[in-house]
Amino acid sequence: MDDDLDDVKHMNQMVLYSKVVTIRDKQLQENKRLEHEYLEEQKKLDLMMEIERLKVLKEEEEREIRKAEARKKGAQVIVDQIQERTQIRLKDQEIRDKERMELLCNLEKMRKEDETAAMSKKERINLLMKQAAEANTQALLEKDKRKQEERDQDNAIREHQRSKDQREYEAQIEAQRIKDEKEREIQRLRELQEKASDRQAEIDALRAKRAFEEGERQARLREKLEHEKRQRIAADLEVARQRQFQEK
Questions:
Q1: What is the DSSP string of the chain?
Q2: Average pLDDT over residues 32-54
């Protein structure tokens, strides 16, 4: 019954809206956190590349110093240094290429992991929203079922009341018929009394009167029993209504 109130319906809508907003806020916070982590990782990679570049520059500077010293020792030494430098450059280039490939592979791996985590999170959120929608649908079905049961009970009560009213109406008609018969009998007895001139007529009238009184007592008894029966039915109906009210 509380769920049928407009205020309660509005409160339930507000609760559902707050849940959806909370989920959305958590999604935004999660996206910001992932974006912050990605930026931090990019900064780390940039720092590593800068360190590597400085290291290479330092190595180049050191090699230039060594080359300058080597040129002073003679032409052959210079040739040997040139060859050695070429080999070192090739090795350094190979090492840098290898490190660059490893870095790109790590970045790709991190990107795929982030996409997988985001997809899993989206699936969890969709599942939660689907479960919430199913719960709301089930609640509406239960509510409709309770309303139908209440309507069935009200129909049963109205049918019982209609039957009761019909019986009371028939009882009133029967009582009126008995009353009309009594009046006709009284009129007949009066006519007999007026026409009777001897003792036998008086005796017959007295007997008829006694029979009429006996019939009237029987009718009053029947009316009393019928009234008590109606009271018992009304009491039983009231008990049934109270029981239905308590069950609701």
A1: -GGGSHHHHHHHHHHHHHHHHHHHHHHHHHHHHHHHHHHHHHHHHHHHHHHHHHHHHHHHHHHHHHHHHHHTT-HHHHHHHHHHHHHHHHHHHHHHHHHHHHHHHHHHHHHHHHHHHHHHHHHHHHHHHHHHHHHHHHHHHHHHHHHHHHHHHHHHHHHHHHHHHHHHHHHHHHHHHHHHHHHHHHHHHHHHHHH--SHHHHHHHHHHHHHHHHHHHHHHHHHHHHHHHHHHHHHHHHHHHHHHHHH-
A2: 88
